[in-house]
Design a protein that fits this description.
Structural class: alpha/beta
Number of strands: 9
CATH class of the largest domain: Alpha Beta
Keywords: Glycoprotein, Membrane, Signal-anchor, Transferase, Transmembrane, Transmembrane helix
Number of domains: 2
EC number: 2.8.2.-
Largest sheet: 4 strands, parallel
Oligomer: single chain
Number of helices: 14
InterPro entries: Heparan_SO4-6-sulfoTrfase, P-loop_NTPase, Sulfotransferase
Shape: globular
CATH architecture of the largest domain: 3-Layer(aba) Sandwich
Organism: Monodon monoceros (Narwhal)
Enzyme class: transferase
Distance between the termini: 91 Å
CATH topology of the largest domain: Rossmann fold
Order of helices and strands: HHEHEEEHEHEEHEHHHHEHHHH
Helix content: 25-40%
Length: 477
């Protein structure tokens, strides 16, 4: 009896070993576990399924939802990362230089804060960010600073680009008089010494030298556009017009505000930020400090909220808006209510126009949209960390309402951005599912066509079915 049981155990163990060996050899090739013997779809399962019951708050046309760009890393395209404080930008910035699958990876050496991110075909950067070019336009430069600063910085990094004259195109109301600028700003430009304005081309077209490239331009036309004839001419041979793709991250306003307070409480400051606008920095009267001394360490949340000049309030709107529209930091330029609405509208417009933006609260969706927008893949998936320092702060409902009041513009912007973000994610996922179904249908049709029996000679293409019969009749006749 014992001998029979031992044989049975031996047979079972042998069968199990045989099946395990068979699976190891045959399983990977047969894609066992996948329906139809096919491998599962690429990486869609890594990302959350869109909510079919999501209710849209705003209407966005398809052109605002479609964000599939032809980013040419070997050409002259540049990604510009607008890093807003306490939005998770440090983590995302490291993803850009350390976690993107590239033909030529960024060179990040131990002990160095910046990485070298060159194009595959030449020693020129394709990424303008804290961890690639540093704070070249100032510490945490905003939209107003970056759009006026980035072209000049890259021109200095790439001297070959200076061979191509840049031509600014102005409409009739903005002829080259700099009338919309203050006298102090015009004096600071020293227009007589710098070859800033040279007559060239038709009325309304002015050649701008590198010294004051963005100084006398109206706000809507800040991004330079080279004259195509000059680019293709002999003088500009080898130089092309750069394309700047601006990206950023946003965060829930209350969480972001609390996180900034904790950061400042620990002694952090951004007092080296330039806040450059229309060619100058704000005066102490326009932007008074909230504290005396080297930092504001140890400040309470109440003290943080009580400072009327605290830039933490509505920081996301201010950093995304065109501050030139409201007189920069001069609060007496226009009434407060009109100023707030102009800033909010400008921030929404610039956010829509950006190539990409993500939300800190949706890391996987942010990864998905970035990969589909720029056709770049991350090596490791993004992780969602909900246990932040701001999350550990216990505040009452009254305090939360007070923070929301102080950040009313940011609350409205985030509500708008979140809806646009969710709609873009749903649109892209549905588009990919539809394309996947079409590919599967084509594969099935192709498979059926291959398995179909060969047709006879009577059904050769171009041959009439009754041809043999008619030939036979004629031959008999």
């Amino acid at each position: 009896m014992v001998e029979r049981a031992s044989k049975f155990v031996l047979v079972v163990a042998g069968s199990a070993c045989f099946m395990l060996i068979l699976y190891q050899y045959a399983g990977p090739g047969l894609s066992l576990g996948a329906p139809g013997g096919r491998a599962p779809p690429d990486d869609l399962d890594l990302f959350p399924t869109p909510d079919p019951h999501y209710e849209k708050k705003y209407y966005f046309p398809v052109r605002e939802l479609e964000r599939s760009l032809h980013f040419d890393m070997k050409g002259d395209d540049v990604i510009v990362f607008l890093h807003i404080q306490k939005t998770g930008g440090t983590t995302f910035g490291r993803h850009l230089v350390q976690n993107v699958r590239l033909e030529v990876p960024c060179d990040c050496r131990p002990g160095q804060k910046k990485c070298t991110c060159y194009r595959p075909n030449r020693r020129e950067t394709w990424l303008f960010s804290r961890f690639s070019t540093g704070w070249s336009c100032g510490l945490h430069a905003d939209w107003t600073e970056l759009t006026n600063c980035v072209p000049g910085v890259l021109d200095r990094r790439d001297p070959a680009a200076l061979r191509t004259p840049r031509l600014w195109h102005w409409g009739p109301p903005f002829l080259p008089t700099c009338a919309h600028l203050t006298k102090g700003l015009v004096r600071s430009l020293d227009l007589q010494k710098a070859p800033a304005f040279l007559s060239s081309g038709p009325v309304g077209t002015v050649q701008v030298g590198p010294a004051v490239r963005a100084a006398c331009l109206p706000p809507p036309l800040r991004t330079w556009r080279p004259n195509q004839e000059e680019v293709s001419g002999e003088e500009g041979k080898g130089s092309k017009a750069r394309k700047f793709y601006y990206i950023t991250l946003l965060r829930d306003p209350v969480s972001r505000y609390l996180s900034e307070w904790r950061h400042v409480q620990r002694g952090a400051t951004w007092k080296t930020s330039l806040h450059m606008c229309d060619g100058r920095t704000p005066t102490p009267e326009e932007l008074p400090p909230c504290y005396e001394g080297t930092d504001w360490s140890g400040c309470t949340l109440q003290e943080f909220m009580d400072c009327p000049y605290n830039l933490a309030s509505n920081r996301q709107v201010r950093m995304l808006a065109d501050l030139s529209l409201v007189g920069c930091y001069n609060l007496s330029f226009i009434p407060e209510g009109k100023r707030a609405q102009l800033l909010l509208d400008s921030a929404k417009k610039n956010l829509r126009g950006m190539a990409f933006f993500g939300l800190t609260e949706f890391q996987r969706k942010t990864q998905y949209l970035f990969e589909r927008t720029f056709n770049l893949k991350f090596i490791r998936p993004f992780m969602q960390y909900n246990s932040t320092r701001a999350g550990g702060v216990e505040v009452g409902e009254d305090t939360i309402r007070r923070i929301e009041e102080l950040n009313d513009l940011d609350v409205q912007l985030y509500d708008y951005a979140r809806d646009l973000f969710q709609q873009r994610y749903q649109y892209r996922r549905q588009l990919e599912r539809r394309q996947q179904r079409l590919r599967s249908r084509e594969e099935r049709l192709l498979h059926r066509a291959k398995e179909a029996p060969p047709r006879g000679d009577a059904e050769e293409p171009g041959r009439v079915p009754t041809e043999d019969y008619m030939s036979h009749i004629i031959e008999k006749w």
